[in-house]
Protein backbone atom coordinates (compact mmCIF):
# COMPACT_ATOMS: atom_id res chain seq x y z
CA UNK A 1 0.00 0.00 0.00
CA UNK A 2 1.27 3.50 -0.83
CA UNK A 3 2.26 6.14 1.65
CA UNK A 4 -0.32 8.59 2.90
CA UNK A 5 0.91 12.07 2.00
CA UNK A 6 -2.25 13.69 3.26
CA UNK A 7 -2.71 15.68 6.44
CA UNK A 8 -6.48 15.32 6.10
CA UNK A 9 -6.95 18.78 4.62
CA UNK A 10 -7.79 17.24 1.24
CA UNK A 11 -10.53 14.92 2.51
CA UNK A 12 -13.16 16.44 0.22
CA UNK A 13 -13.05 15.00 -3.29
CA UNK A 14 -14.61 17.86 -5.22
CA UNK A 15 -11.73 18.44 -7.64
CA UNK A 16 -9.73 16.22 -9.93
CA UNK A 17 -7.39 13.59 -8.55
CA UNK A 18 -9.32 13.32 -5.29
CA UNK A 19 -8.33 16.82 -4.15
CA UNK A 20 -10.58 19.81 -3.54
CA UNK A 21 -10.92 22.13 -6.52
CA UNK A 22 -8.60 24.74 -4.95
CA UNK A 23 -6.04 22.26 -3.54
CA UNK A 24 -3.18 23.41 -5.79
CA UNK A 25 -3.93 27.14 -5.61
CA UNK A 26 -1.11 29.12 -4.06
CA UNK A 27 -3.34 30.43 -1.29
CA UNK A 28 -4.36 26.90 -0.27
CA UNK A 29 -0.81 25.60 -0.42
CA UNK A 30 0.43 28.56 1.63
CA UNK A 31 -2.26 27.98 4.24
CA UNK A 32 -1.37 24.26 4.52
CA UNK A 33 2.35 25.02 4.85
CA UNK A 34 1.68 27.63 7.53
CA UNK A 35 -0.55 25.20 9.41
CA UNK A 36 2.07 22.44 9.23
CA UNK A 37 4.87 24.75 10.36
CA UNK A 38 2.81 26.09 13.21
CA UNK A 39 1.82 22.59 14.26
CA UNK A 40 5.42 21.43 14.13
CA UNK A 41 6.59 24.43 16.17
CA UNK A 42 4.05 23.67 18.90
CA UNK A 43 4.95 19.96 18.91
CA UNK A 44 8.68 20.70 19.12
CA UNK A 45 8.10 23.15 21.96
CA UNK A 46 5.58 21.36 24.17
CA UNK A 47 5.38 17.80 22.82
CA UNK A 48 2.59 15.85 21.22
CA UNK A 49 0.55 14.71 24.19
CA UNK A 50 -3.19 14.22 24.00
CA UNK A 51 -3.94 17.65 25.53
CA UNK A 52 -1.66 19.37 22.99
CA UNK A 53 -3.19 17.49 20.06
CA UNK A 54 -6.71 18.29 21.28
CA UNK A 55 -5.84 21.97 21.70
CA UNK A 56 -4.32 22.10 18.20
CA UNK A 57 -7.38 20.37 16.78
CA UNK A 58 -9.63 22.95 18.41
CA UNK A 59 -7.51 25.86 17.18
CA UNK A 60 -7.32 24.46 13.65
CA UNK A 61 -11.01 23.60 13.58
CA UNK A 62 -10.07 20.01 12.82
CA UNK A 63 -10.15 16.70 14.61
CA UNK A 64 -7.41 14.97 16.59
CA UNK A 65 -6.90 12.29 13.93
CA UNK A 66 -6.06 14.91 11.30
CA UNK A 67 -3.65 16.65 13.67
CA UNK A 68 -1.91 13.35 14.45
CA UNK A 69 -1.77 12.57 10.73
CA UNK A 70 -0.22 15.99 10.12
CA UNK A 71 2.39 15.38 12.82
CA UNK A 72 3.22 11.96 11.36
CA UNK A 73 3.45 13.46 7.87
CA UNK A 74 5.82 16.20 9.06
CA UNK A 75 8.01 13.70 10.94
CA UNK A 76 8.19 11.35 7.96
CA UNK A 77 9.06 14.15 5.56
CA UNK A 78 11.77 15.37 7.94
CA UNK A 79 13.26 11.84 8.03
CA UNK A 80 13.02 11.56 4.24
CA UNK A 81 14.71 14.94 3.80
CA UNK A 82 17.52 13.99 6.17
CA UNK A 83 18.03 10.70 4.30
CA UNK A 84 18.18 12.60 1.01
CA UNK A 85 20.74 15.05 2.45
CA UNK A 86 22.90 12.15 3.66
CA UNK A 87 22.70 10.43 0.27
CA UNK A 88 23.64 13.67 -1.50
CA UNK A 89 26.62 14.15 0.81
CA UNK A 90 27.70 10.56 0.18
CA UNK A 91 27.38 11.02 -3.58
CA UNK A 92 29.33 14.27 -3.42
CA UNK A 93 32.10 12.55 -1.40
CA UNK A 94 32.31 9.67 -3.89
CA UNK A 95 32.44 12.08 -6.82
CA UNK A 96 35.18 14.15 -5.18
CA UNK A 97 37.14 10.99 -4.37
CA UNK A 98 36.80 9.78 -7.95
CA UNK A 99 37.89 13.13 -9.35
CA UNK A 100 40.87 13.12 -7.02
CA UNK A 101 41.92 9.64 -8.21
CA UNK A 102 41.46 10.42 -11.91
CA UNK A 103 42.89 13.92 -11.74
CA UNK A 104 39.57 15.33 -12.85
CA UNK A 105 39.70 13.50 -16.16
CA UNK A 106 36.40 12.36 -17.66
CA UNK A 107 35.58 8.70 -16.96
CA UNK A 108 35.11 8.03 -20.68
CA UNK A 109 38.64 9.29 -21.35
CA UNK A 110 40.06 7.09 -18.58
CA UNK A 111 38.26 4.00 -19.83
CA UNK A 112 38.89 4.80 -23.50
CA UNK A 113 42.62 5.15 -23.07
CA UNK A 114 42.96 1.50 -22.02
CA UNK A 115 45.38 0.11 -19.48
CA UNK A 116 48.56 2.07 -19.06
CA UNK A 117 51.54 0.49 -20.80
CA UNK A 118 53.95 -1.07 -18.37
CA UNK A 119 57.63 -0.80 -18.91
CA UNK A 120 59.10 -4.30 -19.13
CA UNK A 121 62.53 -5.10 -17.75
CA UNK A 122 63.42 -7.34 -20.72
CA UNK A 123 63.77 -5.48 -24.03
Distance between the termini: 68 Å
Q: What count of domains describes the coordinates? A: 1
For the report, how would you describe the main beta sheet? none
Number of helices: 4
Average pLDDT metric? 83
What proportion of the residues is helical, as a percent range? 55-70%
* Quaternary class: single chain
Amount of beta strand: under 5%
Instruction: Extract low-pLDDT stretches.
Output: none
Shape: elongated
Radius of gyration: 26 Å
Order of helices and strands: HHHH
Descriptive overview:
The chain contains 4 helices and no strands. The chain has 123 residues and is an all-alpha fold. It has one domain. Helix 2 crosses helix 3. The longest helix has 39 residues.
Describe the structure concisely:
With 123 residues, the chain is mainly α. Helix content is 62%, strand content 0%.
Features:
123 residues, mainly alpha, 62% helix, 0% strand
What order do the helices and strands come in, and which of them pair?
Blueprint: H1 26-46, H2 50-59, H3 64-102, H4 107-112
Helix pairs in contact: 1-3, 2-3
Amino acid sequence: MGRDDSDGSDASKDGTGGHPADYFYLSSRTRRVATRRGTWSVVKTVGEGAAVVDALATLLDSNSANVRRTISLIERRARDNETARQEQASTRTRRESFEERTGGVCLAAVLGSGAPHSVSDNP
